[in-house]
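thought: fold this chain, then report.
action: predict
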Amino acid sequence: MAKVKVATEWLAGCAGCHMSVLDLDERLVQLTSLIRITSSPITDLKKPRKVDVAIVEGAVANSSNVETLKELREQSQILIAIGDCACFGGIPTMRNTVDKSEVLRYAYIESPSTRDGEIPSSPELAKLLDNVLPVNQVVKVDFYLPGCPPSADAIYFALSELLAGRVPVLAGDNLRFD
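observation:
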């Protein structure tokens, strides 16, 4: 039996969802007999090739996130949005309530840790979007797993069901609303 190819991507947000994945501990090792992680933030290969399942966490905050997400969607059969940031924008959308130029000015000019007092303008830097977006406002999402972060048990259940060819139906007590 061929292993299911999986890619993971971390956009704008905290690392809570990745920590929940790491909380799978031995269960993650059990899944390795069924999956092959082709790209992720913790592998050398960052650009996904054709995969069966893509797991995305985080919201879409800049032009690089948009490009990455569109490429990932194009390369995957199933796209899973995990965590509140990916599902509805979560905490990164707090930036939407303030003027982007004010945020940049504070971070790069008024911050006590700023040395040169200039807002970076290199063309190599990703351009901030006017508003942070949830994943589904950029690409089609096939399955949502909310939570901040979703529990390791919910992630394991959802992945196990998808790997078995079933659509995961999570019981309410397996979802987190933090």
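thought: worth noting. The longest strand covers residues 4-10.
final: tokens above.
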